[in-house]
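Summary of Year 1 activities. Much of the first year was spent building the evaluation harness for sequence design. The harness presents a backbone, in tokenized form, and records the residue chosen at every position. We chose the following record to illustrate the format because it has been used consistently in internal testing since the harness was completed.
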């Protein structure tokens, strides 16, 4: 049953990442969110393949999984997420050089931080992950307020719930293992993968709501048009 829940949660996250990532790119020309969503989905695909092949910790797929994990926890679903959402909160669209640079930064962070494996607690990196998540959560609280302010109350509540769930996952990730979980932390990863999938789904809906509001009020051109010159 635990393995089935893990597989379903991972498949859900993979679908959400690829599907809504592509929609971010195709509909809104938002490569920051679109590519990051797809990177998370690729991470989930690698994780699923590793699990199906037996979960050998000596497998190269295991190291790749830690790289993707560190990539998104350090810069991807923190700085890149905030920059991508600022498109609809502040009409901010960075230059191609900035886009490339922030993904390069995430790759460097992933390569460095992937060495700190979960077989033991590494207080420094674990604390860093929590701190950047807290900072991101502050911005997401503002994002939720913007949704509430335009009358998208259901979407705002949904975004608030997944943000709190994501923060809970980030805090428990390294510091508070689930009692009774197995050596591979199947229960935890099932909850984490499901949460991350719902975050990508709900944040897409929230982004769409703010974008549509901006278009209606004249603050944003329709999809397919460039809203502002790339800064």
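For this record, the design step produced the sequence shown next.
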């Amino acid at each position: 049953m635990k393995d089935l829940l893990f597989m379903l949660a991972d498949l859900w996250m993979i679908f959400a990442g690829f599907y809504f990532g592509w929609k971010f790119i195709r509909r809104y020309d938002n490569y920051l969110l679109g590519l990051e969503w797809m990177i998370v989905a690729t991470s989930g695909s690698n994780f699923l393949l590793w699990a199906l092949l037996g979960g050998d910790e000596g497998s190269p797929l295991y190291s790749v999984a830690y790289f993707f994990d560190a990539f998104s926890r350090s810069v991807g679903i923190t700085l890149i997420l905030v920059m991508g959402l600022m498109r609809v909160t502040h009409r901010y669209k960075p230059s191609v050089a900035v886009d490339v640079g922030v993904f390069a930064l995430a790759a460097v962070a992933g390569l460095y931080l992937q060495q700190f494996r979960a077989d033991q607690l590494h207080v420094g990196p674990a604390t860093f992950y929590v701190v950047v998540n807290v900072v991101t959560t502050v911005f997401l609280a503002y994002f939720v307020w913007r949704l509430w302010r335009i009358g998208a109350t259901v979407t705002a509540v949904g975004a608030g719930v997944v943000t709190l769930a994501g923060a809970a996952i980030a805090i428990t990730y390294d510091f508070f293992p689930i009692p009774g979980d197995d050596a591979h932390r199947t229960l935890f990863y099932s909850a984490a993968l499901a949460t991350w999938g719902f975050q990508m789904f709900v944040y897409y809906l929230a982004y769409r709501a703010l974008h549509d509001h901006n278009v209606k009020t004249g603050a944003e051109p329709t999809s397919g048009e460039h809203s502002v010159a790339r800064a």
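Residues 224-231 have pLDDT under 50 and may be disordered. Quantitative recovery figures across the full test set are reported in Table 2.
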